[in-house]
Structure formats: structure tokens, C-alpha cells
Amino acid sequence: MNDAINFMNMEGLKFFGRVNASISHELKNILAIISETAGFSNDLTDLAKKGKVLDLSLIESCNDSIAEEIQRGFTTIKQMNRFAHSADVPIKDIDLLETLDLTIKLSSFLSFASHVRITNPGKEIKSVLTCPFLMQNLIYQILCFTYESVGPDGEVHLQIDSEENGGIHLVFSSSFELVLEGFPNQNIQKAADILGVEFNINTSSIELDIWIPYVSDKINLLSEEL
Questions:
Q1: pLDDT tens digits for 79-126?
Q2: How far apart are CA 42 and CA 36, in angstroms?
Q3: In the list 156, 159, 172, 201, which could disulfide-bond 119, CB 3.0-4.6 Å?
């Protein structure tokens, strides 16, 4: 278990840093837009002081743009807070749909992110006993792998199905061909082993099937150590 805990600590720091870097870049973009828009608004005001006719619709457009970016900033910070608190409890029951939603939103800040479309399972998804932070890390890495495969203009399809065989299936596919050569890499496989997650790559339809147990023996053992 010590090896697993050391891996979680090291990978957790890398993951936290990577996500925070992408969030800070997003916030920087938001502030840059607000700054540019406010500057344009000041230019219009200066022209009006010099006797030029002030187009109120332009001022209104500036105000709307600033308000929109402020709201985007609040939403981004809210997601950042949710992400930070996911590390509060090492092992606990999670709502996998909520975890997927947050992780997809966090990954959307990446410059090479694709659009993700989730197929509604249409039925209740049972909770999963797992390490929330490591699970987010694993899903984030899988999303990055698929993004690099289909490109920023592509779309990743994610189908969720809650099974009676003790787990949940996530099926990743795309209208483009998923290039899954080299998947899973060493870090992805290590995280999956700790979480009890299994991969099945369907080479005929180019789908990535991920099975996530509701609870695994490895997670039970890990919870006794943490």
C-alpha cells in the first residue's frame, strides 16, 4: 500500500499543478478581455469629452461584455473550489456523474480540448466508493488522451451505463477515429490498478470501455491505511 500512497501523492501534486495552471490561464484570459473592453469604453468616453457623438449602444455592449466575463470568472472560481475540496477526504462515496461533470469542465480549459457529449444513462447511477482525487486524475488523463486523438474540432462521445455486475461502464468514442496506440500509458495504468478500474479497447469499433467498480478490495485496503 505504501507504493500506492506514494504514487497518489506524487501524481496528485502533478495533477493539482496542471489543473491550477490551466485555471489560472483561463482567469488571465477573462481579465484580459475585461481590461480591453474597459479600455475601449474609456476611449469612447474620452472621445465624447472632446465633442464626438457618444454611441450609447457601444457603451451598453461593453457593459454586457464585462458582465459576461465576470460571470465566467465566478463560474471558473467555483469550479476551482470544487476541485480543491475534492482532495479533502481520501476515500469516500462519490456521485460519478458529478465527478465527470467537474472533470470535463476542468479539462475544457485546455487549448487542445474537444467537445464532450454525454449520453444520459436514463437511470439512477449508484455511488462509487473510491479516491475522488485520483479518480478525477484518471478521467482527466483519459480525456486528454482522447482530445489529442480527435483534435480540438472533434467531439468525444461518452456513454454511461450502470450495470448490475458491480460497476459502471464508461464508453468513450468519437465520430473521428480514436487513435488508442500507446493507451494506457504507465501512469494511467497505475492509477487504474489502485482504483480497481479496468480497460477494454474495442479495436473493431474503436471504442474505449472503462469499467469502474462500485467498491474494490484495493480501495477497502487503501482506506485502512489512510
A1: 999 999 998 899 999 999 999 999 999 999 998 999 999 887 667 788
A2: 10
A3: 159
Do 208 and 183 meet the contact criterion of CB atoms below 8 Å apart?
A: yes
Amino acid code (one letter) for 55: D
What is the model's pTM?
0.89
Domain residue ranges in the chain? 2-85, 92-225
Q: Residue 92's beta-bridge partner residues?
A: 130
DSSP output for the chain: -HHHHHHHHHHHHHHHHHHHHHHHHHHHHHHHHHHHHHHHHHHHHHHHHTTPPP-HHHHHHHHHHHHHHHHHHHHHHHHHHHHHHTTSSSSEEE-HHHHHHHHHHHHTTSTTPPEEEEEP-SSPPPPEEE-HHHHHHHHHHHHHHHHHHH-TTSEEEEEEEE-SSSEEEEEEEESSPP--TT-S-HHHHHHHHHHT-EEEEETTTTEEEEEEESS-HHHHHHHHH-
* Angle (deg, nearest 10), helices 217-225 and 2-49: 80
**What CATH number is given for 92-225 in this structure?**
3.30.565.10
* Ramachandran category for residue 151: left, alpha or beta (phi over 0 → left; psi -120 to 50 → alpha): left
Topology of the domain comprising 2-85:
Helix Hairpins (1.10.287)
